[in-house]
Amino acid sequence: MSSEVVEDEISSFFESSPPLKNMDGIIKKLNRFIKLNSSSRGENHQSDWREEDRVCVTSGGTTVPLEQRCVRYIDNFSSGNRGAASTDSCITFGSCETSCYGPPSLADGRLLKLPFSTIYEYLQMLRLIATALKDVGSCSMFYLAAAVSDFYVPWESMTEHKIESGSGPLDIRLAQVPKMLSILRSNWAPNAFCISFKLETDSKILIEKATKALQKYKVHAVVASELSTRKEEVVVVSSSGNVVVRRDCDKPDESIVEYNLIRLIVDRHSTYIKESHS
Ligand code: 9Z3
């Protein structure tokens, strides 16, 4: 598919999406957060990250409503644990300014939580955040751990009221959600460090799929997880090779895989920032 076709699909997705309910409030919160965290961040940070460094962690699943006045919806599997645990580890490692939307984790001035439910809300918020962070360039990171719906019912073809249940089986045609990673990389935040995630249930195809995503979307790394072992290990797939990251139950900090994952990702991001500035 040519990039023009993809861009057209993305534009029509946003044009037909129901607008965010509290768009002005979200923009205000986001701008306040970015401004607040542009000043010095204190003494005790332990890494090479700079005061402008910001991470957008996405977390949890997105829903696809079946009715405009939604009673029923299709959900995507995700407990939100990976995003929340990764956010905690980001704060531990980088004393970084973290923008997280999804389930709550920490709360102070360094954390902004922007909750979402539907695929429409998620993608509109991702676009808002990415474009707001555009000026931060290589210092910002997108860590896209949310489980994003691949299929949806376009708003204009959705029934307004609750689907009648008395008329037999229900046929629903789902359209494909346009992949936003390419436009995030090319337009919204082209200089940001971008980590995407790939979840499969069949371990035989996992690495191949993650490698294809790395090449197709030109992200800096893809974190590959197999559903049943996702809490034990992940594989970080990048152009410098594949690294297996495991948890280590003998070490308290490392008893969750996200701790070791974030340590690796923060290190890669620091190298990326240095290379971008040299
Ligand atoms: C993931 O792979 C996340 O790591 C998990 C986290 C959903 C496994 P939990 O929230 O689980 O701790 O229970 N997310 C998948 C991201 C995603 O939807 N990727 C798309 C895909 O796999 C491509 S962008 O096709």
From TrEMBL:
SUPFAM superfamilies: CoaB-like (SSF102645). It holds the Pfam family DFP. Residues 52-232 form the DNA/pantothenate metabolism flavoprotein C-terminal domain. InterPro entries: CoaB-like_sf, DNA/pantothenate-metab_flavo_C. It comes from the Eukaryota. Gene3D superfamilies: CoaB-like (3.40.50.10300). Belongs to the PPC synthetase family. This is Phosphopantothenate--cysteine ligase 2-like isoform X4.
